[in-house]
Amino acid sequence: MEKQTTIGVIIGNRDFFPDRLVADARTEILKELDKLNIKAIVLAESQSKLGGVETFQDAQKCAELFKQHREEITGVLVVLPNFGDERGVAETLKLSQLNVPVLIQAYPDDLDKLDVARRRDSWCGKISVCNNLYQFGIKYTLTTKHVVHPSDPSFIADLKDFIAVCRVVKGLRNVRIGAIGARPGGFNTVRYSEKILQRHGISVVTADLSEILGSANKLSKDDQVVKDHLEKIHNYAPSGTTPSEALIQIAKLDVVLNDFMKTHALDATAIQCWTSLQQNYGCNVCTSMSIMSENMLPSACEVDVTGTLTMYAMQLASGSPSALVDWNNNYAADDEKCVLFHCGNWAKSFLPDIQISNAPILGTTVGVENTYGALDGRTPAMPLTYGRISTDDTRGVIKAYFGEGELTDDALNTFGNRAVAKINNLQGLMQYVCRNGFEHHVVMNASKTGAVLKEAFENYMGWEIYQH
């Protein structure tokens, strides 16, 4: 079962509409939330008329309740069983000072129930509520249908997407990323601004690679912690022809990286690889990065901090691991397909035929014997959301692009971590990427979460986005 999510619920009311509508809505919405394992923080029926929010006094009570659960609440659902009191909704959100995503739901009227005793007017009331939230400067999310019953499949889908938006926004505003090592000299493409990220709540913790390698070199194959990590690696993926000495080197490095993440309470890492690790330590770090990403602690190579930030965001949206890839090759003469590639650090969710191997391209300059730890494997057909977050330092903004496509089973005879992607108007996308100075690294996730990312990035984070 998925981890339980907690949201605040505001049930709007207006005194000249039937109270029964509020009571029914309370029962219906709580039932739907319970089905989705969502905990609701809502006024009790004894705290206001039927637990609704209508007066300023109701707003004060509801805001105080939300404040008591500030650490739990990731979003707020506004329910309008009738026209509702737009001021009551806006005042509640203002007084609570939660600064979380807000979803506005309004009930539909029945054509045979438009008499004074049974009409709702929620269609009109929703516009008024949104108008007030706009005036108050409070960001909000709309349902696909302007009015919709809580049991309608489209609302259930909207609610699931909204919960994902809440996860993304909460996660991005508090994420801690470890930048381990210096950006390789040949990778100007992964430059970024720590200061711009920090303004958006994204913290970067740096470490010199020599500190990490120095600590790893102090460990020996006889240390129990090294034996434990070696066993973890054996259980994670077949080692193929990888020498035992290389596996021990990988395990020692894995120990230190895990300790560093725990010490600094990190959610993700970006690690220098090309080519210091191979020359100064004698292995690739890909296996450790793959294990971390598979365990929802995403890791990107070449100190690509905004790359691993993108991995984390997509992971939050989908609930599944992400992978950092290169926009790498054309796929024959097909203008809507391309090859995605990396030496070998993708989470094994993408690699059913995973095997620990080496990195042949890198090996041509540093010696293949120093590149064990890279993974080999082919990603089969699966859904695809792709994208990239970047800091545009000269303009002082965070920008992003993303879209959806498919990973295919098309033939691909090569090595490393590899996949074939099919994307509509791929040539237009590449024009956009190149003209707007985005990196050659992109992130893939086996999901269809474009709408979630758009709402989270653009509406709540205030970033410049392009949805392909």
How would you describe this structure in keywords?
468 residues; alpha/beta; Rossmann fold; L-fucose Isomerase, Chain A, domain 2; 2 domains; five-stranded parallel sheet; elongated; carbohydrate metabolism; L-fucose isomerase activity; Fuc_isomerase_C
Brief account:
The protein is of the alpha/beta class. 38% of the residues lie in helices and 23% in strands.
Would you give an account of this structure?
The structure is a single chain. Helices cover 38% and strands 23% of the residues. It is an alpha/beta fold. The protein folds into two domains: 5-172, Rossmann fold; 176-467, L-fucose Isomerase, Chain A, domain 2, CATH 3.40.275.10. Strands 10-11-16-15-14-17 form a six-stranded antiparallel barrel. Helix 2 (56-68) runs parallel beside helix 3, helix 5 (153-172) packs across helix 15 (450-460) and helix 8 (224-236) crosses helix 9. The longest helix is centred in the middle third of the chain and has 20 residues, at 153-172. The two termini are 33 Å apart.
Topology:
Layout: E1 5-11, H1 20-35, E2 38-41, H2 56-68, E3 73-80, H3 86-96, E4 102-106, H4 122-136, E5 141-142, H5 153-172, E6 176-180, H6 194-199, E7 203-207, H7 209-217, H8 224-236, H9 244-263, E8 268-271, H10 276-280, H11 286-294, E9 299-301, H12 305-318, E10 322-331, E11 334-342, E12 355-357, H13 360-366, E13 374-378, E14 382-392, E15 397-408, E16 417-422, H14 426-435, E17 441-445, H15 450-460, E18 464-467
Parallel strand pairs: 1-2, 1-3, 3-4, 4-5, 6-7, 6-8, 8-9, 13-16, 15-18
Antiparallel strand pairs: 10-11, 10-17, 11-16, 12-13, 14-15, 14-17, 15-16
